[in-house]
Structures are given as C-alpha cells and as structure tokens.
Amino acid sequence: MKELKLMKGNEAIAEAAIRCGVDGYFGYPITPQSEILEHLMLEEPYKKTGMVVLQAESEIASINMVYAGAACGKKVMTTSSSPGISLMQEGLSYIAGAELPCLVVNVVRGGPGLGTIQPSQSDYFQTTKGGGHGDYRLITLAPASVQEMYDFVELGFDLAFKYRNPVMILSDGAIGQVMEKLEVEDYKPRWTDEYIKKSFPWATTGKNPGEDHAIITSLELDSSKQEQVNIRIQKKYKECEANEVRYEMIDCEDAEYIFVAYGTSARICQKAIQLGREKGIKIGLLRPISLWPFPNKILEEMAGKVKGMLSVEMSAGQMVEDILLATKHKTKVDHFGRLGGIIPTPQEVLNALETKIIGG
Amino acid sequence: MTEEIIIAGFGGQGVLSMGKILAYSGIMQNKEVSWMPSYGPEMRGGTSNVTVIISDERISSPILACFDTAIILNQQSLDKFEETVKPGGMLIYDPNGITRHPERKDINIYQIAATDKATEMGMARLFNMMVLGGFLKYKPIIQDEFMEKGLEESLPERHHHLIPDNLKAVKIGAEIIKPYHTL
C-alpha cells in the first residue's frame, strides 16, 4: 500500500533505503546532507529490517566499508556532499575496478575546496568523467524532486547489480533540503543469504568444499589479463549506453528553443518556460535524468528541430560540453550558470535565453 | 490555483514550522506542495525564511524570486522581501518591533499584531498560528478540517493535545488581522 508523506529530499533517500531493503549504510555527516544519517538514526532500521547504519570515522572509511559490504553481495550505500565525495574517489575507482555494485549519493554543494554549504552542480565533471583513476564510469542519476530522490535509490541498486558497477545519485543542496509530497512503498525484506549466494556467484559468501574461490580484487599485474578486464568492463558500459539512457521532455512538441538542465536547474527552467510562454516564446525543457549514459541521441534529434539550446547549470559550464558533442553543431548551444552556491532565478534564466540564444 | 508564499522572520519564531503546517495541510487537501527553507549560517541565530508553494498542478521551481504573498515577522525580512511581492499581491506583517512600515502602493498590505495578542493571552508560542489564521482569512486555500489533519500529521503524537489551542489561535488570527493598505 502506498502512503503519502511530506519529506525533505535527504530524508527521502534514507526512507527509501530502509523500505527497499538496503543491508548497510556507512556515512559521515556533512551539510547539506546530514539529514540522511539523522533520519536513519531516528528510524532505527536495525530494529525493523536489520539494516546496519554506521557513522564511520571518515568518508574514506565509509567508502571502504561499502567496498567490503558490496564484495559480500550486500546492498550497501554511502552518502556525502562534494568535499566528502572527493575523498571517496579512490574507493570508487577500486569498486568499479573490482566490478562491485553499490550506491553513492552526492548532495552537491558549491566548491572548489570546502567552498560553501549552498547548492551547486559543479561536480558534473567529477561524476561523469571519472573522478578517480582508470577507465571507469559511474552510472549517474540526477533527481529533480523529492519523489525522484526516493525512487532512484531502488532504481540505483537495480542498475548497480545489473551492471556490477557503482551508481551515483547526483543531487544538490536544494533538492536535499526541499520538502515535497512523497509517495512511499511498503517495506521490502532484505535479501536472504541464500538468495545472495544463489544469485551472485561472484560474491564472497563463504566457500564450501568443491566450490571455486570467489576472488574480489582490482589488482591484476599481468597486463594481458588486465586488458581483458578492461575490455569486459567497457563492453558492459556499451550495453549500459544502449539500455539505460533516461530523460524527460517538457513542452518540447512546439518548442523553438530548448533548455537543457538537470536537478534543481531543471525545476527553475520549468518556471522560466512558463514566464517565456506568457511572452510568446516557445520554449521546452530536455531534462537528462541519466547524466551517464548521456541522452546524446535525443539531443542530436532535437538539435535538428530547434533554433537553439541553452544549458542551464549551477556551474561554470560542464554539461554544456556533452551537449556540444551530442548536437554536433546542428544548432546554436550556449551555457548559463551561477556559481558558488547561488541559485539562478527563473527570470534570470529566461533573460539568458533571450540574450545568449534568441538575440545572440 | 497556485499560491507562492514566502514566510520570513527570526529563527525561533516558528517560521519553518508555520510553513510545514501549511504544506502538510495542503497535502491533506490533495494539493501539490513544496517547502524550501533557507539553510546554513543565516539559520543559526539570524533570520530564517521558507518558501511554500501550494498548487493544484505540478510545481515547477521550489525556489522563487517573487511571491503572491509575503508573511513578514521582523524588520530585516520586511526590508528584504517587501519588493519581492508581485504587483497586486499580498503582504502580511506583525508590527511588533517594526520601525519602517511597508511603503508599497501596488499591493494589499495587512497588519496582524499577533505577538502582542499571543503574549497577552499567555499563548506566546502559538503566535505563528495566529499569523497563519490571518493569512487564511484573506487566502482561504486551506479548509479548517484539513488544517486539523495537517496539524495531526506534522506534530508528534505527544503534542496532539495542543491541537485545539493551535486551532483556537488560527481563529483568533482571523479576527485580529486588519487592512493597512488595500487596493
């Protein structure tokens, strides 16, 4: 049975983790996402579903606890905000290299450095282009509402286990702090040890006589073997690119101009579209939901139909590079963003479209 | 119907909880709602504000630069948010501690002396509910029965015995609010 709640985006992440049967959460508090750990501690899921909730001594410890839990075939996750996520990059690379599933949530704040505690989207490059070392990708989901914060936890784990790869929910301080109506599902039981053993032969669940060792490692000193590991991982990413592109289109049917934006920026663009259409400017929104894999195809298709696209990001222009690659110069593309924790107003966004794309 | 509201005052005045009760009541009435607080350094001891949107439709941006209604509870907030009310919109303020009163001529302005009234009645902590009652008198977007349900949902059970007093405060608010400048 579905139930209605009023919750912050951060609380929705925690609530979803409990309700979709997560085995373990390991994290370290940081604004603007501390409500995740707080909500977990209040709900005491270890008494309800047996889920472990642990405040680690640091972000580095958190991600390595996740690495270990994932190696056992458990549904494990961590959350942090930008500076904390930077500390986790080594662990993420190892987890991707060892081909293990896990969920990481980044409730982004303005950087670089300790920066600010206000919302930003300046971790796009870090998330979609690597961050850690080596040829790996993070499957990246960008929620634009409290409901999506909730929904993407279960979706994230589905994808993580399907591709044996870390999944990142790339959110921001505004979606983390806003309260909206949320529909939650009934509690699902955690996976049993028998289920994990049967379903995930790669997991280190204990070796019985006659069974092969399950070996989890990201180290392979024989280059010819390491190349094969990389080829296998890249094949997986190709499949992911073919099957897991997600996006939403709003008011695009008759649009002459398109905003491309994710997360909080996408919400602001929706208001800017209303303001623009009141003035007779036909604007639509293409909202990438999966930032990797990126919705290249639809962007190229739309580029052939519209007079211009404006990438709206709370960054100095990161996603705009992917839009430029996808649209292959078939339409005019520019960027508008505010930096360091400033959220643009809908009017500012509309003005930017008018000066940079329509009049530019 | 879409009502875009900013509530602003000092931290501790119940700004955030007023917004939360409004949002919860909206959900009970099957509306779409959003509640976006200011957070961070300004929250700790200084001014506090929250943007609440209640709508029949999917809500676009939870962050706004102009509002249908501003509910203002201190001078700093009045100075900051008076200009953000849309022309023809509404501004409600508590004159307690106000030295420069609102000056706009293109909006409806109402005064509610809720701080004084609540103190006088010995229900100082319910001052925010009086303000809410004043707001709902002129913008009846939430019906009484849903306000009660909203309170039930937003207050922990150990505080449910306070709901009748909260509803009383809402009623008093509707009685004491008065026009300051109307169009």
Query: What order do the strands of the largest sheet of chain A run in, or round the barrel if closed?
Result: 3-2-4-5-7-6-12
Which CATH class of the largest domain in chain A? Answer: Alpha Beta
CATH topology of chain B: Pyruvate-ferredoxin Oxidoreductase, domain 3
CATH topology of the largest domain in chain A: Rossmann fold
Instruction: Estimate the helix proportion of chain A, in percent.
Output: 40-55%
What oligomeric state is this?
A: heterodimer
- Name the chain pair whose interface involves the most residues: A-B, 26 and 22 residues
- The total tally of domains of chain B equals 1
Radius of gyration of chain B, in angstroms, nearest whole number:
15 Å
Residue share in helices of chain B?
25-40%
Mean pLDDT metric of chain B: 93
Q: In the CATH hierarchy, what is the architecture of the largest domain in chain A at level 2?
A: 3-Layer(aba) Sandwich
Tally of helical runs of chain A: 15
**Backbone shape of chain A:** globular
Strand content of chain A: 15-25%
- Give the helices and strands of chain B as they follow along the chain: EHEEEHEEHHHHE
How would you describe this structure to a colleague?
Chain A is an alpha/beta fold and 360 residues long. Chain A folds into two domains: 3-184, 3-Layer(aba) Sandwich (Rossmann fold); 247-358, Rossmann fold. Helix content of chain A is 43%, strand content 19%. In chain A, helix 1 (9-19) packs across helix 2, helix 12 (263-278) packs across helix 15 (346-358) and helix 13 (296-303) packs across helix 14. The termini of chain A are far apart. The model of chain A has no long low-confidence stretch (mean pLDDT 97). By secondary structure, chain B is an alpha/beta fold. Chain B has a single domain (2-97, 106-177), classed as 3-Layer(aba) Sandwich (Pyruvate-ferredoxin Oxidoreductase, domain 3), CATH 3.40.920.10. Chain B contains six helices and seven strands. Chain B has helices spanning 15-28, 75-81, 114-120, 127-138, 144-154, 163-176; strands at 2-10, 32-37, 47-55, 67-72, 85-93, 108-111, 178-181. In chain B, strands 2-3-1-4-5-6-7 form a seven-stranded mixed β-sheet, with helices on both faces. The radius of gyration of chain B is 15 Å and the shape is globular. The two termini of chain B are 21 Å apart. The mean pLDDT of chain B is 93. The chains are: A alpha/beta (360), B alpha/beta (183). Chain A binds chain B through residues 4, 6, 31-32, 117-118, 173-174, 177-181, 264, 267-268, 270-274, 343, 345-348, and chain B through 20, 23-24, 27, 32-37, 39-41, 59-65, 153-154. Strand 8 of chain A pairs antiparallel with strand 2 (32-37) of chain B.
